[in-house]
Every structure is written in C-alpha cells, then in structure tokens.
Design goal:
Helices cover 54% and strands 17% of the residues. By secondary structure, the protein is an alpha+beta fold. It has three domains: 181 residues, Beta-Lactamase (2-Layer Sandwich); 85 residues, Helix Hairpins; 154 residues, 2-Layer Sandwich (Heat Shock Protein 90), CATH 3.30.565. Strand 1 and strand 2 form a beta hairpin.
Length: 474
C-alpha cells in the first residue's frame, strides 16, 4: 500500500513530536534537577553560615548584653526559623560528631554520627545520601563550621529532603513541558503550510500528469503559485500545449504527405491504365510517358526533401569548412540560367567584398541558396530582377535574396516555415511544389546556430535574409 506524501509527513511530524518530548523529558529532568541542587545548596549554605555565625558568638562568650542561655535561645530561634522556611532539618554538632541540638528540639540531641567526617564532601559544599543511615530517605546535606578565635567549636548541618528538591524541579519542568506542548501545537502551522504549498499543488500536478499520460493534452493544471510548484505546473502546461501542437502537426503532416503523394500516384496510375487499355493511342505514348516521368520526378523530389528533413532532425550532421560565400552564390545562380531565360528574369549580385569567407556546411548552404532562389523565380513576374546580396557586419556575413513578385499574404508569413505548408497562391501557381523547401532552409540555418528572417509585402515582393559566421582563419 502506497502512503500519500502528506500522510508520511504527518507520521514524521508525530514521530518528531514524540522523540522531542522524550528527549526533553530525559535531559531536561536531569539538567533541571542538577540546577535545583546547586541553587538550593547555595541558598542553604548561606543560611547555614548565618546560623554558624550566631552560635560562634555564643561559644566565644560574646553576650551582647544577654546571658549565655538567652544567646542560645536567640540562636535556636534563628535555627528553627530557617528550618521551617527551608523545610529542612538542622543540626548543631560538636567536633566529635555528636548532635548538640537540632531544629526539632532534642529529637536528635545526643545522637552520635557514626564515622563523622566534615571534610567528606571535598571541594563541594553539599552531599546527597541518607547521611550515614540516619535518614530513611536521601537528603542534601550542607555543612558550615562554627569558628571563633581560630578554633572550630562544631558544625551546622542542614539536611533537606531530596524529594523536596525534586518536587521543585518537577514544577519547573512543568513550565518546560507546557512550553514544548505549546510549540508542538503551534508547529501544526507547518503542516498547514506544507499542505497548501506542497501537498495540494503536488496532487494537482499528479492529476495533470495522469491526464497527459491518458492522452488528454488539453488538460490545464490550475496552479498559480509563484514558487517551484507553480513553475513546475506552468512547465507541464506548456509541455502539454506543445505536445498537443505536435500531435496536430503530425496529423497535418500525414494529411499533407498523403495529399502530395496521392496526386502524382493517381496521375501515374491513370496514364498507365489508359496506355494499357488502349485509351491513349501509340502515337501519344511519348507525351504521356513524359508526364509519368515528370510525376515520378516530383515524387523523388518529395521523398528527397523528407529524407533531408529527417537528417536535419538528428545532431552532428553538419560538415563545416571555410568557403567563399560569393563563389557559392555565383555558382548557384548560374544553375538557374535556363529557367530564368524562359521568364526573362535576370540576377543582380552585390557583394561588399571580393572574397567573403564564411564557416559552415558548403553543401547545405548551397541547398539553402538553391531553395530561396527557386522560390524567388517561382513567384517572380516575367521580365523582372532578383537581387542577391552578401555583406559583412561585425562577425557575421548576411545573405539576402529579394524578388519583386507576388509577395506573401500577411496571414501566411508565420506559416511558411512549416513542413508541407503551401499558401493558396503556391498551389495555384505551382502544383509541383512540395512545401518542404523553406522548412529545409530554416532547419539548415538553425543547425548552424544562425537565424533567417523574411520581409514581404503582398503585391510588392519578398526578401529572405540569413546570416553565417565569418571565417576566423583566412
């Protein structure tokens, strides 16, 4: 069973909360308890020193205007007040470790502390134990010496139950736990943000991907966020629209191929059947066989164009060299001498320099020039001029082929680069066209990393301009 991403995130969130609480409980309890021990020990140690100071005055014989008994009573009242305030048990012991008095009025008086050692705590001011087995529970014991005249008369021992310290520690921990729980609840906002910014958009994107996989390329993912999810959705929408266009293009491609193949094949079949069944007399065979050959030439040209486009679709097909573009233009224009003579069309060639070396695929550029000049002748009026220019600018050489013919309708300019596209004028004037010439031209120029543009005005003429990189080694 596949778990949704949002559900996994919730499980991770809950696991984080439980582990976080367990960690806080474990470490905070220990840290808080140690802090409380230190805090209580410092407070009690100060109180123990005050009590020791009072008893020191008694042992030194300082009466302060009072009898020794009065001084002892005063000191005891202070001892009892501190014991009640701190919730502790306070002993006064002599140097031999015998309890002289305690805060509970002689309950422990006379008790000898076994193995009494006032230095047992070392450099610490407190110890935690049952204090030589005298308590049935652990106590924190703080010791302060009663001194005077460089003599030690005894010690003040303050015993506070550890349970009291733990109770205070737990109360402090309650604040920590409540704060942690509050933060945990507030962090639910993260889940809401995740759901809104990740989970829901991802679900929409997944639904869109499934629609595209099912063939519904018109499906649009409704997501307008300006983040990575929004960018992904926009990219998928663009991809689907392009794929939809590609499908439309493929349908048109097949329709155009079928149309352009059907027409010559129908003619060839008709002529051959007419020859076989005797409809065409023997003396007319040469005429109609010539037409058959013309139609097969048209099929050959169409097939060759498709093969050329197929090779252009693959990478690395160019064989680049340095060559003189002026010479290529002259040779290509000369190959149309017979066609131009029929319509009395002349070429006017203009070059900005005697030799202009460019870097590209010589054979492919010849094909570009051939297709552009062929188109120019096809749509030029009789007794007209075709202008061909080549001029250098910066690191480029620009080649222009311009006619003064029919021009291209405004609505057709963007479509002339499409494979098999023919304007109505093209179909009306030249049935032999394949609609692949300009598509081949654009593919070749783009493969060189260059651009080709067209400027056309209907009834005035058209100009095609493309660029090539200048040769770097002359």
């Amino acid at each position: 069973m596949k778990l949704p991403l949002y559900f996994k995130f919730i499980l991770g969130y809950l696991a984080f909360g439980l582990l976080g609480f367990a960690t806080i409980s474990t470490f905070s309890s220990s840290i808080m308890y140690g802090h409380q021990l230190e805090s209580y020990s410092e407070t009690i140690y100060d109180e123990a020193n005050l009590i020791a100071s009072s008893y020191s005055s008694v042992y030194q014989g300082k009466n302060n205007g009072q009898t020794k008994k009065q001084n002892m009573d005063t000191a005891y009242l202070q001892l009892q007040a501190v014991a009640d305030f701190a919730g502790a048990e306070i002993w006064i012991v002599n140097r031999q470790g015998i309890v002289v008095t305690d805060s509970s009025r002689s309950a422990r008086a006379g008790t000898e502390i076994p193995g009494f050692d006032p230095t047992a705590t070392g450099n610490r001011q407190y110890s935690v134990s049952d204090y030589y087995g005298l308590f049935p529970y652990d106590v924190m014991t703080v010791s302060a010496p009663i001194t005077g005249n460089y003599n030690t008369y005894g010690y003040v021992l303050v015993h506070m139950p550890v349970s009291r310290i733990r109770e205070a520690s737990n109360k402090s921990l309650d604040v920590v736990y409540i704060s942690a729980a509050f933060i945990f609840v507030l962090s639910l906002i993260i889940l809401l943000v995740f759901r809104k910014t990740v989970s829901i958009p991802l679900k929409k994107i997944t639904e869109g991907a499934n629609e595209y996989a099912a063939g519904n390329l018109e499906y649009h993912i409704e997501l307008n966020s300006r983040d990575e999810m929004g960018y992904l959705a926009a990219t998928l929408n663009y991809m689907s629209s392009e794929l939809d266009k590609m499908e439309e293009y493929q349908r048109n491609f097949i329709a155009n191929v079928s149309h352009d193949f059907r027409s010559p094949l129908t003619s060839i079949k008709g002529y051959l059947e007419a020859i076989i069944d005797g409809t065409i007399p023997p003396e007319m065979y040469e005429k109609y066989l010539t037409r058959v050959i013309s139609e097969t030439d048209r099929l050959t040209k169409l097939t060759q164009g498709m093969l050329t486009l197929n090779s252009l679709d693959s990478k690395g097909y160019l064989s680049r060299t340095n060559f003189d573009i002026n010479r290529v233009i002259k040779d290509t224009a000369a190959s149309f001498e017979g066609t131009c003579a029929t319509k009395n069309i002349v070429f006017e060639l203009t070059f900005s320099d005697t030799i202009q070396m460019v870097y590209g695929d010589l054979g492919k550029i010849q094909q570009v020039l051939y297709n552009l000049i062929d188109n120019a002748i096809k749509f030029s009026h009789a007794d007209s001029v075709i202008y061909i220019q080549a001029y250098a600018k910066n690191e480029k050489v620009f080649i222009s082929v311009k006619d003064t013919g029919e021009g291209i309708p405004k609505e057709s300019i963007k479509k002339i680069w499409e494979r098999f596209y023919k304007s109505d004028q093209s179909r009306g004037k030249d049935k032999k066209g394949t609609g692949l010439g300009l598509a081949i031209v654009k593919e070749i120029i783009q493969a060189h990393g260059e651009n080709i543009d067209v400027i056309s005005t209907e009834g005035v003429g058209s100009e095609f301009i493309f660029s090539l990189p200048r040769s770097t080694s002359l």
